[in-house]
Amino acid sequence: MSKIALITGANRGLGRNTALSIARHGGDVIVAYRGNAAQAGEVVAEIEALGRKAVALQLDVSEMASFPAFADTLRDSLRKIWGRDSFDHLVNNAGHGEFVPIGETTEAQFDGLFDVHVKGVFFLAQALLPLIADGGRIVNFSTGLTRFSSPGFAAYAAAKGAVETLTRYMAQEFGPRGIAVNAVAPGAIETDFGGGIVRDNPDLNAKFAGLTALGRVGLPDDIGPMVASLLSDDNRWVTAQRIEVSGGQAI
């Protein structure tokens, strides 16, 4: 029986790459997206072209009150498409960044980051836990910025630090059901994250590349396949870990 992964923010960036990587590894995918249905549909089509099953479901991870209804929609989709009442892997990828010094960060910016990256991860896992199969997996996306610092990312990194702590608690509490929980922490990546701050800013790109042992910043193809590998049976004994995927940034 094929494994089914639900990925938040799977219509673009690292979420999209992760979804396609999982499909290439033989898994089926639930593409959760916030606002671009056309993009999500394209990802579904790409997954289906790889011979896997997929469906796109709308979800705003900052709207915790919507999670029970989303769980109902998910349950219906699982039964209709897969004839199942559960899925196997939850990948909490959705998120955004704020490039603002501490002295200029507004309360609204701070709250927005924690709503998406911390409360969203916490309460989505809570809402979907009854639907996650025993022996399943949860991957929470963190960031290299919890280990090293770069001016302007304080609030974002603080939120991701909370995610790393939450990951360990999830691993402990969900362990009796055989559910492994880990955090994946990318370094600087060339995507549209933060308005393309690393991808489109040559000076910042060169700065991070110069701090990286392998001599460049990361690409989506450096991250998605790693997550797909982490979800494989070969990594069934890995849990409660923070796994940095940064090419050796700031070591």
What can you see in these coordinates?
InterPro entries: KR_dom, NAD(P)-bd_dom_sf, SDR_fam. It comes from Paracoccus onubensis. The chain has one domain: 3-Layer(aba) Sandwich (Rossmann fold), CATH 3.40.50. Helices cover 43% and strands 17% of the residues. It has eight helices and seven strands, in the order βαβαβαβαβαβαααβ. The protein has helices at residues 13-24, 37-49, 67-82, 107-128, 154-174, 193-196, 202-210, 220-230, and strands spanning 4-7, 28-33, 54-58, 87-92, 132-141, 180-186, 242-245. Helix 1 links the parallel strand 1 (4-7) and strand 2 (28-33). Helix 4 (107-128) packs parallel to helix 5.
Strand and helix layout:
Elements: E1 4-7, H1 13-24, E2 28-33, H2 37-49, E3 54-58, H3 67-82, E4 87-92, H4 107-128, E5 132-141, H5 154-174, E6 180-186, H6 193-196, H7 202-210, H8 220-230, E7 242-245
Parallel strand pairs: 1-2, 1-4, 2-3, 4-5, 5-6, 6-7
Keywords: NADP, Oxidoreductase
Pfam families: adh_short_C2 (PF13561)
Family: Belongs to the short-chain dehydrogenases/reductases (SDR) family.
Output the keywords.
alpha/beta, Rossmann fold, 251 residues, 8 helices, 7-stranded parallel sheet
pLDDT averaged residue by residue: 95
The shape is globular
Give me the oligomer status. Answer: single chain
Tally of DSSP β-strands: 7
Overall tally of domains: 1
Strand percentage:
15-25%
Overall helicity: 40-55%
Q: What is the terminal separation in angstroms?
A: 41 Å
CATH topology: Rossmann fold
Classified by CATH, the class is: Alpha Beta
CATH architectural designation: 3-Layer(aba) Sandwich
Strand order of the largest sheet: 3-2-1-4-5-6-7
InterPro entries: KR_dom, NAD(P)-bd_dom_sf, SDR_fam
GO molecular function: oxidoreductase activity
Keywords: NADP, Oxidoreductase
Domain Ketoreductase: 3-187
